[in-house]
Amino acid sequence: MKLTSLTAISPIDGRYSDVTVLLRNIFSEFSFFKYRLYVEIQWFKKIMSMSQTLKINFFEHKKLFLLDEIINNFNENDAICIKKIEKKTNHDIKALEYFLKKQVLKLDFFESVSEFIHFGCTSEDINNIAYALMLKDARDQIILPLWYDIIHALKKMMIQHQYVSLLSLTHGQPATPSTMGKEIANFYYRMKRQYKKLKKIEILAKMNGTTGNYNAHLAAYPNINWHTISKEFVTSLGINWNPYTTQIEPHDYIAELFSCVCLFNTILINFNRDIWGYISLDYFHQKLKDCEIGSSIMPHKVNPIDFENSEGNLGLSNALMNHMIMKLPISRWQRDLSDSTVLRNLGVAISYSIISYHSVLLGVNKLRINKDRILEMLNQHWSILSEPIQTVMRRYGIKNGYEKLKEITRGKKIDKSIIHDFISQLNIPENEKIRLQNINPENYIGNASQTINEMINDIN
């Protein structure tokens, strides 16, 4: 059976392939080869740039740019060629090294120095840098832009609904009102914090040989400061240098990065569930499309499927990332191979997040506020005003204010007249009675609306 989006085992490359296609340029087997080939070439160029210091007879420095053509022209046939070599070597990096040597030998002026390809390297020197570059590209080119879109969509929502009063529900029960804008703003602020954190997380890599001590490098060139060269090389690739490792870079930064993504995802799950609930309460309508169907038998249904889809995929993503957070920083002694197959699934974990981000953006764009329903719910619960009344009673020293309001409100249907009658009998200044009677469920929102102005004006 030919592999297509219909025959793929994973929905990542099947049902959801349209929204994950960009990740193929980063996490596919082909792309992994390309990243590693790039690292091998850059290291070879670094060594050649030191030819005078290393006493290498190489005089074609101006020709080094030709090596870039190997990576620029890398195609699927080249990747297939590497896979064929790997069948013999049973080692993917050695197969890549042999492929690169073959390509370099086609350039006659590199023949005398071809043995300096993969010089002093263990496989992990190449792999860890490739993964670092892959994760950097995924973060900067895909994850952060989508987070920005989600945060921007929430900012737009909170401004649109800044003055829409909302009956709060603590423990699922009527509680002190807020505004829809302020409730969205809470998520906006939380997500924005994670956005800032993710941008600052250092992407680390190492280039220091089989056990992190430059043993082979120093065996060949004992008077060279390979520690400094390692730093120069790694940082020249736009990533951060980890100076102290075993054979492998310990992956702590991956755990840090995924911890941040997991927390953002958890906040987004919280948002999805709240919006799902508001749709259920009819606080939001969803924009209709005539051709869409909500149920195969119930014609009236308009389900919040985008938020449900997002929640489900976020759960899958977090499950994989949490395993990686717990597993990847652990390696037996100087190296074991248990991280290898886990690292090959970095793209899988990220893909489920990407699917969910697209889903939530679709869902948010369909939402239409139902102000009438929200106001109706507020006006059904005048008992929530027992909070400001008993608080003002405390201010004026009236004893047992809480207990008195509990007696007339708890478990009872309360309307405006009952509340106003109670206020009129209070032994407080007349202007305070008037102020309390001017409070209603819709305008008892504290500084909810002003809070949004503070967020908007916060340039940090």
UniProtKB/TrEMBL annotation:
Its EC number is 4.3.2.2. Pathway: Purine metabolism; AMP biosynthesis via de novo pathway; AMP from IMP: step 2/2; Purine metabolism; IMP biosynthesis via de novo pathway; 5-amino-1-(5-phospho-D-ribosyl)imidazole-4-carboxamide from 5-amino-1-(5-phospho-D-ribosyl)imidazole-4-carboxylate: step 2/2. It comes from the Bacteria. GO terms for molecular function: (S)-2-(5-amino-1-(5-phospho-D-ribosyl)imidazole-4-carboxamido) succinate lyase (fumarate-forming) activity; N6-(1,2-dicarboxyethyl)AMP AMP-lyase (fumarate-forming) activity. It catalyses: (2S)-2-[5-amino-1-(5-phospho-beta-D-ribosyl)imidazole-4-carboxamido]succinate = 5-amino-1-(5-phospho-beta-D-ribosyl)imidazole-4-carboxamide + fumarate; N(6)-(1,2-dicarboxyethyl)-AMP = fumarate + AMP. Residues 331-445 form the Adenylosuccinate lyase PurB C-terminal domain. Gene3D superfamilies: Fumarase/aspartase (C-terminal domain), Fumarase/aspartase (Central domain), Fumarase/aspartase (N-terminal domain). Residues 14-312 form the Fumarate lyase N-terminal domain. CDD domains: PurB. The keyword Cell cycle does not apply. GO terms for cellular component: cytosol. Belongs to the lyase 1 family. Adenylosuccinate lyase subfamily. Catalyzes two reactions in de novo purine nucleotide biosynthesis. Catalyzes the breakdown of 5-aminoimidazole- (N-succinylocarboxamide) ribotide (SAICAR or 2-[5-amino-1-(5-phospho-beta-D-ribosyl)imidazole-4-carboxamido]succinate) to 5-aminoimidazole-4-carboxamide ribotide (AICAR or 5-amino-1-(5-phospho-beta-D-ribosyl)imidazole-4-carboxamide) and fumarate, and of adenylosuccinate (ADS or N(6)-(1,2-dicarboxyethyl)-AMP) to adenosine monophosphate (AMP) and fumarate. This is Adenylosuccinate lyase. It comes from Buchnera aphidicola. The lineage of its organism: Bacteria, Pseudomonadati, Pseudomonadota, Gammaproteobacteria, Enterobacterales.
